[in-house]
C-alpha cells in the first residue's frame, strides 16, 4: 500500500505533471507572487514609489547609456504610454530626467539622477528585506534548490516578441 502522501501512479490526478498538480503549483506561485508584491509594496510606501516605478528605475539604471522611451517600453513589455506615465512620476520626484537625443530631435532619452541612484540603493534594501521575509521558513539548502528551480522556469520561458 502506498504511503498517504506519495504521488499516485502516472496519469492519476495527483501524479507529478498532472493537470491537478500543475494547477496547484500555478496557484501556489500566484499566491506567493501576490504575497511578495504586498510585502514589497508596504516596504516601498515610505520611499514613496510604486513597484512599477521601481521596476522602471531599475531598468533605466541597467543601461550603459540613457535609454530611449521606446527601449524601455520594449524591455518592460509594456505600451509606450505606460512608460510615459511612469517617467512623468519619476521625473516629478527628481529620480529621472528626460534628455534630448543628440542624433534625433524626436527621440527622448531617460537618465537616472543622483536622487534616483540613492532611491535604488534604498529600494534594493527593501527588496532584500521582502525576500527574506518570504524565505524565512527555508534553510540555506532549500533556498539554493528553489533558486535553481526558479531559474529553470525563467530560463525555459520562450522569448516574447512584441
Helix proportion range: 55-70%
Strand content: 5-15%
Treating each run of at least 4 consecutive H or I residues as one helix, how many helices? 6
Q: Main sheet?
A: 2 strands, antiparallel
Briefly note the structural class of the backbone: mainly alpha
**Mean of the pLDDT scores?**
84
Low-pLDDT runs of 5+ residues are 1-6, 8-13
Q: How many runs of DSSP E, i.e. beta strands?
A: 2
- Tell me, briefly, the overall form: globular
Q: End-to-end distance, in Å?
A: 52 Å
Please list the strands of the largest sheet in the order they lie side by side.
1-2
- Rounded to the nearest angstrom, the radius of gyration is 21 Å
Order of helices and strands: HHHHEEHH
Structure description:
The protein is mostly helical and 162 residues long. Helix content is 60%, strand content 6%. It is globular.
Task: Annotate the secondary structure layout.
Elements: H1 19-44, H2 51-62, H3 69-76, H4 80-92, E1 96-100, E2 108-112, H5 114-135, H6 140-155
Antiparallel strand pairs: 1-2
Helix pairs in contact: 1-5, 2-4, 2-5, 3-4
What's a quick, concise take on this entry?
This protein has 162 residues and is mostly helical. It contains six helices and two strands.
